[in-house]
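Reminder to self: tokens first, then the designed residues, so the page reads top to bottom the way the pipeline ran.
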């Protein structure tokens, strides 16, 4: 709340660093204990960090409590920015997540149905390699600072939300969830992999996957993991009594 508005990679917010990377605080620690769905990304990027900082300042300035400010800032900033949020919503709708939750559209998860979802990342606090947002290298489970975020923040968070279903976003997340399951940190039946990370770099792949896959697949696009995840989610819907679509 300083008069000097914090910026992305503001030195006052740095909480860890080494020769390869730096980690900065942003208000993403709110936990939605009533969530039925958990969306798992890699780490908040610069857009999400800036949006979270701006949102929490605005909410606090309006007179709301710290808890309210944390919840509203996280809902506003998580997977924010375009085309990231639209890419995510398109995939969730294609899988039928909105049907499973009884919603008209998965966009509601970022609006009046945000009570049903917990937004999170393997790395809760924004990570940067130089001035670039972290994209999976160095290996999260081999770098001590990053591994600590996963084991000390993400794993306990998932243990608190032991009734919600996790959907991992992108192969980097999928690999870590599988690794955590093999370590006994999370149950294998608690998560489904297959969704692509919704970054703009994947927009053309996502358009293909949620559209007519009978056409030629775009460069470096493997539909098999996405389709396998979608089938597994359809089975989850059927088991929960929802229309499998």
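Designed residues (245 positions):
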């Amino acid at each position: 709340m300083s008069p000097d508005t914090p910026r992305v990679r503001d030195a006052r917010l740095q909480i860890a660093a080494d020769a390869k990377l730096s980690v900065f605080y942003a208000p993403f620690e709110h936990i939605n204990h009533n969530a039925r769905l958990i969306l798992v990304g890699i780490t908040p990027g610069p857009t999400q960090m800036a949006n979270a900082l701006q949102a929490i300042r605005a909410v606090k300035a309006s007179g709301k409590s710290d808890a309210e400010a944390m919840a509203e800032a996280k809902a506003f900033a998580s997977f924010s920015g375009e085309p990231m949020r639209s890419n995510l919503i398109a995939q969730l709708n294609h899988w039928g997540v909105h049907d499973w939750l009884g919603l008209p559209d998965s966009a509601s998860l970022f609006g009046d149905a945000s009570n049903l979802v917990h937004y999170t990342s393997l790395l809760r606090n924004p990570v940067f390699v130089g001035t670039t947002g972290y994209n999976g290298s160095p290996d999260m489970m081999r770098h001590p600072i990053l591994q600590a975020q996963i084991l000390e923040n993400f794993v306990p968070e998932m243990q608190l939300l032991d009734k919600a279903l996790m959907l991992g976003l992108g192969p980097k997340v999928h690999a870590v969830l599988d690794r955590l399951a093999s370590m006994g940190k999370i149950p294998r039946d608690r998560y489904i992999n297959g969704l692509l990370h919704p970054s703009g770099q994947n927009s053309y792949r996502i358009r293909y996957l949620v559209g007519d896959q009978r056409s030629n697949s775009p460069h470096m696009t493997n539909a098999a993991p996405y389709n396998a995840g979608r089938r597994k989610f359809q089975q989850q819907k059927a088991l929960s009594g929802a229309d499998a679509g």
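The two ends are 48 Å apart (CA to CA).
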